[in-house]
Records
---
Amino acid sequence: MPEDKALGFNMVTCSAPVNIAVIKYWGKRDEELILPINSSLSVTLHQDQLRTTTTVACSRSFEEDRIWLNGREEDITLPRLQSCLREVRRLARKRHSDGDPAGLSHKFHICSVNNFPTAAGLASSAAGYACLVYSLARVLGVEGELSVVARQGSGSACRSMYGGFVQWTMGQREDGKDSIAQQVAPETNWPELRVLVLVVSAERKLVGSTSGMQTSVETSSLLKHRAECVVPGRMEQMIRAVKKRDFATFAELTMKDSNQFHATCLDTYPPVFYLNDVSRRIINLVHRYNRHCGETRVAYSFDAGPNAVIFTLQEHTAEFFQVGGTFFPPETNGEQFLKGLPITGVTLSEELKEAIGMEPLVKGISYIISPKAGPGPCVMEDPPQHLLCPDGLPKKNV
Ligand SMILES: Nc1ncnc2c1ncn2[C@@H]1O[C@H](COP(=O)(O)OP(=O)(O)OP(=O)(O)O)[C@@H](O)[C@H]1O
Ligand SMILES: C[C@@](O)(CCOP(=O)(O)OP(=O)(O)O)CC(=O)O
């Protein structure tokens, strides 16, 4: 990218999405390169609701690489950040070996914000590292396969490098070059699919994914069985279901895989608990609702935290909102609860309420976010969106 004469350095701002795995990644065979013990598959969520925005500036006048995250300067020497910086610089050197190595002796100033809670089981590390790698690559003019680089920031980040439905193939090589993400189908393949993120708790979790899965690999025989005997078949079935828009199969596999992931957490020694009472109530609610409907209309999935991700189809969304609001009523403000989503006039039949047969739990769910599947990272062309000032330091309100 040519240097901006007015600024005296290159600056680019990009945004990247969160993804939710429906076949979960849990466990590494190489901690440093972040190579998984099984393949996984996810849905990229639309950036209108959940996104990371990152500005990268690159200048010869900067003395050192620096990063600000959500308004605070963070330690740039973090090994995962260093891996991403090193790998993008390496790709840039390769690309510019016969031409102009613009920017390669320069240092980076990086400023990033998430528009949702960080480290709360809402996949901030996935959107964060995907955005970082995409922005660094753009500022240095690097193209091509970048998911191998994002993977070295956080495993699940490699899937956020693409939109729609994305598989991360575990690969076999020791150097990780074949452990990459690929799009299985674009988001436009399944426009009726809807996602509801039921935020149960937006607090930092007790056991992070990285350490949780490390203990699982060391102690859980169920995890070994899952990786070797269960996931390969599920990946094939899930890819078929996504391509055919077969919701019943997609939903059943999604719920079973989430349940098996949490079973491996319980099989870990000492056990790791990510679900709480509200999560378990949501699981019961979904099964009772589906049973009453006589078909699988709704599925849940839980990552390393108590928040539920619900998958359903457009035609059932309004009713399930109402179900959520009835059994987990907000204390006062319905508007905040639904974060501005339209409150439809659906009323639930007494029969349905009876079939679910649960006591309402006030404030069990803090709020609901309702994204569709969405596209991958993109450059924000509008200069005022930069998070860094012309002097290369964060803007005051960031
Ligand atoms: N915008 C960002 N840019 C760079 N790094 C980020 C960004 N957002 C988050 N991170 C990194 O990811 C870490 C949080 O990852 P962690 O896995 O603990 O939580 P999570 O991704 O929100 O949850 P989960 O992966 O379980 O869904 C942060 O401490 C930070 O190091
Ligand atoms: C439960 C999960 O969300 C685990 C995500 O783990 P991370 O990608 O956060 O872990 P690291 O590779 O150590 O950074 C399942 C998934 O996203 O596939």
Note: Residues 21, 24-26, 34, 40, 125, 154-156, 209-210, 303-304 surround DP6 (ligand 2) (CB under 6 Å).
---
Amino acid sequence: MSELIPLPESLKEAIDPYLPTDISHHNANNNCGSEGDEILDDNNRPLPFITLTFAQSLDSRISLGEGTQTKLSHLQTKTMTHYLRYNHDAILIGINTFLTDNPSLNCRYNPENVHPIRPIIIDPNMKSCAANNYNFSNLNQLASKNMGLSPYIIVSMLTYLNLKSDIDQLNNSHSGPTIIPINTTKVKYSNNIELFDWPHLFSLLKNHYHINSIMIEGGAFVINNLLSYNFNLINSLIITIAPVYLGKNAIQVSPDFHLSLLNNHNTNDRNNLTWWTGIQDSVLMFRNK
Ligand SMILES: NC(=O)C1=CN([C@@H]2O[C@H](COP(=O)(O)OP(=O)(O)OC[C@H]3O[C@@H](n4cnc5c(N)ncnc54)[C@H](O)[C@@H]3O)[C@@H](O)[C@H]2O)C=CC1
Ligand SMILES: Nc1nc(O)c(N)c(N[C@@H]2O[C@H](COP(=O)(O)O)[C@@H](O)[C@H]2O)n1
């Protein structure tokens, strides 16, 4: 586990306007989020502030291949992701990222003022708990030592019905993960495969589990699916770009449709987009109004 470095002041200044406002613990951020920006679901219930954030190569790849963790970020931008964790209630990843990276998903930004962030794993078939995957995971080690919160694992209703007694037992255990079943729906643009409906999941997390802000780190399936689903669900997009090509066999981030961050109405208005450049990486920050 690498030590973090102090966050460059210029990066902190650049990123603060892209953070959620509604973080309970600490700083009075001078950011542009406000009650009025809140996104609602179809039933007019509020949704959490969503930040989509990941590190990519020059050719829009996030890892060298399936089952491989690839370090792209410089320590400066790695520290930035922990500053982001410090400013969100939860951090969400897909099951392949959990199985490949065995991540810690805790916040190591300010050890004097520990910020508990809730890991959330999108895992329709509950692979995270099979074959001792969870028992031997860093998430479990950290949660059992009180150095991180235990995760919420999002499973399909079908999985829940098939494994009900095991899941009920896990949910009643003291420090184990919380298994949350939700319905899947057929997604037309994705070959009719059954997926979770993002607004439904976000609404449940906000209105039932009181999670006001979620940073979504990946992997590629999650990122591509979210970008393709409805870009308006995303409040902030923060992408680290490392000066490396990973090549065409690497895992690619690319939405199903053309998607532009440019504002066609007023090309001079670039208040919602910032580039920061450090020793190695550049960071694109975009605020979806
Ligand atoms: N460079 C970076 O910043 C990051 C890189 N990664 C890398 O990404 C790779 C993993 O990416 P992927 O293979 O694309 O897997 P992934 O981590 O996105 O997980 C994909 C799986 O999650 C589930 N899932 C995702 N969205 C769903 C939805 N809406 N409904 C139902 N199920 C859903 C499905 O089971 C799907 O097969 C790893 O190599 C990891 O190291 C992961 C996070 C960040
Ligand atoms: N920001 C960033 N840069 C990279 O180069 C990466 N490979 C990742 N990966 C994400 O970070 C998670 C690891 O978190 P811990 O340090 O173990 O807490 C990993 O699972 C990916 O989501 N991120």
Note: The radius of gyration is 18 Å.
